[in-house]
Amino acid sequence: MTEPIKNKAPSRFTMESYQELYRQSIDNNVEFWRQQGQILDWFKPYSEVKDVSFDEDDLHFRWYGDGELNVSYNCIDRHLPEKADKTAIIWEGDDPKKSRHISYGDLHDEVCRFANALKKIGVKKGDRVTLYMPMIPEAAYAMLACTRIGAIHSVVFGGFSADALGDRIINCQSQFVVTADFSRRGGKKIPLKANVDKAFDKPGVKDYLTDVLVVQTDAEAVAMNDHDHWYHELAQEVSDECQPEAMNAEDPLFILYTSGSTGSPKGVVHTTGGYLVYSALTHKEVFGIQKNDVYWCTADIGWVTGHSYVVYGPLANGCTTVMFEGVPSYPDFSRFWQIVDKHRVDIIYTAPTAIRALMKQGDQFLENTSRKSLRVLGSVGEPINVEAWEWYYEQVGDKRCPVIDTWWQTETGGIMISPLAGVTPLKPGKASLPFFGIQPALMDADGQELSGQNEGQLVIKDSWPGQMRTVYGDHKRFYQTYFSAFKGVYTSGDGARRDEDGFYRITGRVDDVINVSGHRMGTAEVESAICEHDHVVEAAVVGYPHDIKGQGIYVYAILNNDDDAGDELEAELKQWVRKEIGPIATPDLIQFTPSLPKTRSGKIMRRILRKIAANEVDSLGDTTTLAEPEVVKQLIENRLNR
Ligand code: WTA
């Protein structure tokens, strides 16, 4: 076995003090979180800390339940006046000539103005506001403005289609959308506002949506309807002072839709106090944040990583956070490292898919940059393979900076299993050890907890402040999805292996969720989109190993008329899915087939389809329950391998 790599970075912990505090955080959980809650400023101090139940009839998780606070106050006002001139947000445009520094003082005024504009169009405490935004500072202003007045934001990734946007508006009965005229990525201009117009045409949307606030980013005109309001016009009419609303710790903060194994995406609900305590604390300790750090998380705010580690965690800690509008490949594959040099970034936090894509382009794109400012390299969103880990560590960080592989989920609110910068010995490919207060465990299929060195389903015992509170409008589904398989614990849906030192390696999803370029997707969503096409009778979608994306999307489709099969229909179906869901869901491979392997009771045997897609046809496993075994033979013969 190779020796772990030294984790060299400043930290207030040593391995011994981490272990000691970890032990206390478990043995004395309530006392630990009582103290950690002090990372925030509270309008009304909490006396209760933890009130949780995993029982089906009484499922609830409440943290700091009688405390009152405001998220935007914690992210802005409490840093003033000392940090009025400190940069809160460095915005780097898609166009490398464009960047802006927004100080904490400016942020205060911008967020207050935005909050007042929201009030002006009628937004009130408890209302759901859908944000469909590019990566521009106004996206962060809008999020913080919602929190300032107690509105609940639901950020929908700007790459999702009008249809997907419509679904999410309907699901949370959102009366308001905040958007921009255009978004920009890789030198291309994308008409974002036009998608909102299209969403209005979706049946049901008009029952809820009444007003759209539009941020202008471009001189090109866009169509404005009666229900549309220009933000820049309203901003002139409102003041830059807005009192932060005192919110109960358990008031909902945001809804974020994420994919599960079945059905439509779920609205994950996070609440005000516990979420902010957890995102702030994990941000501070996992990365070992220092006073003047420039911290850059490359995630889009449409994902949970953008919520917790672009906006809320860093700003609650008074840190300087970088917000990047563009993509790693534009104008060329040096862009990330140019940004690191330009803004003297200390900590970068990105996804394995980006690392693999850049690694593939070769080291010449690193050579013209220094990257000397870097101290910590973070990774998130999917398992990082050892080769990518080593390239990140050796080539990007010149072996100076620890690679911090952080495992967590939309549902967990913040990082759960990860090395701490400067503390935990590094084992490439392993997310390693739990954060304070977190008790991971491994289960076998029968619900028996596994001990020692072992592999099983990853669950979390007990609750933590950042845990999701419910599925919006469907508490039953919350129970079914996360607490019914194994009693008294949170089931993550991931598998993991624990080594002789208790370090965890996450092995990937055990359900029908796939992870394509770090974007989480339910195979059921892609299936239902494809099946809506006239030529398709039935389809099954699985993930398969993909060099860059981690997983690619492999579709098996049964057509109405076999004669239609061909490149043309394949291209049309790919285009169809892009339109239905968004470009991130575009299938990589589509295999047309006259039938699918099913059990005698008619269930598609996805395990077999996964094996065929992965070209592991020698290990198909038990096929005795197949209704028509010859289907499998045919699928293997016609397997795609492009
Ligand atoms: C996967 C993203 C391995 C995992 C924060 C999880 C990871 C899903 C890692 C959640 C990691 C995330 N190593 N796998 N370090 N981080 N995952 O909700 O399968 O978009 O269940 O949250 O991503 O994706 P989500």
TrEMBL record:
PROSITE patterns, per database record: AMP_BINDING
Location of the Acetyl-coenzyme A synthetase N-terminal domain: 18-75
Annotated positions binding ATP: G381, E382, P383, D405, T406, W407, W408, Q409, T410, D494, R509, R520
Location of the AMP-dependent synthetase/ligase domain: 78-463
UniProt GO MF annotations: acetate-CoA ligase activity; AMP binding; ATP binding; metal ion binding
Listed EC numbers: 6.2.1.1
Enzyme superclass (EC): ligase
Gene Ontology BP terms: acetyl-CoA biosynthetic process from acetate
UniProt KW keywords: Acetylation, ATP-binding, Ligase, Magnesium, Metal-binding, Nucleotide-binding
Residues bearing the modification N6-acetyllysine: K603
Keyword ATP-binding included in the entry's annotation: yes
Residue ranges constituting the AMP-binding enzyme C-terminal domain according to the UniProt record: 525-603
Domain of life: Bacteria
Binding-site list for Mg(2+): H533, V536
Keyword Hydrolase tagged: no
Catalysed reactions listed for this entry: acetate + ATP + CoA = acetyl-CoA + AMP + diphosphate
Record: residues binding CoA: R185, G186, G187, K188, T305, S517, R578
Listed cofactors: Mg(2+)
InterPro entries, alphabetized: Ac_CoA_lig, ACAS_N, AMP-bd_C, AMP-bd_C_sf, AMP-binding_CS, AMP-dep_synth/lig_dom, ANL_N_sf
Short name of one Pfam family: AMP-binding
Record PTM text: Acetylated. Deacetylation by the SIR2-homolog deacetylase activates the enzyme.
GO CC field: cytosol
Family membership: Belongs to the ATP-dependent AMP-binding enzyme family.
Biological function: Catalyzes the conversion of acetate into acetyl-CoA (AcCoA), an essential intermediate at the junction of anabolic and catabolic pathways. AcsA undergoes a two-step reaction. In the first half reaction, AcsA combines acetate with ATP to form acetyl-adenylate (AcAMP) intermediate. In the second half reaction, it can then transfer the acetyl group from AcAMP to the sulfhydryl group of CoA, forming the product AcCoA.
Name recorded for this polypeptide: Acetyl-coenzyme A synthetase
Organism: Marinicella pacifica
